[in-house]
Design a protein that fits this description.
With about 70 residues, this protein is mostly beta strands. It has a domain of about 45 residues: Roll (SH3 type barrels), CATH 2.30.30. Helix content is about 10%, strand content about 40%. Strands 4-3-2-1-5 form a five-stranded antiparallel beta sheet. The relative contact order is 0.21.
């Protein structure tokens, strides 16, 4: 797996989404949901269902994986 400035893209990884998430833990990300809403924060955790935990400074947000459309650094 090749990392570029601490980030890993799907094309650089083995193609497994959870590997990309693992490489993004501790990084600032933007999460876009099905309804168009976006959340910015530090990715602090995830699980096998791609449920996400974001630290947004003033609060911690848990996002259900089936609502996620994209995660970008």
């Amino acid at each position: 797996m090749k990392a570029s400035q601490g980030r890993v893209s799907m094309s650089e990884s083995s193609g497994r989404p959870l590997d990309v998430l693992e490489a993004s833990v501790g990084e600032q990300v933007t999460v876009r949901l099905k309804d168009g809403e976006e959340y910015d924060g530090e990715l602090t955790g995830y699980d096998q269902h791609m449920n996400l935990v974001l630290d947004r400074g003033d609060n911690t947000t848990i996002i259900r994986g089936d609502n996620v459309v994209s995660i970008t650094p």
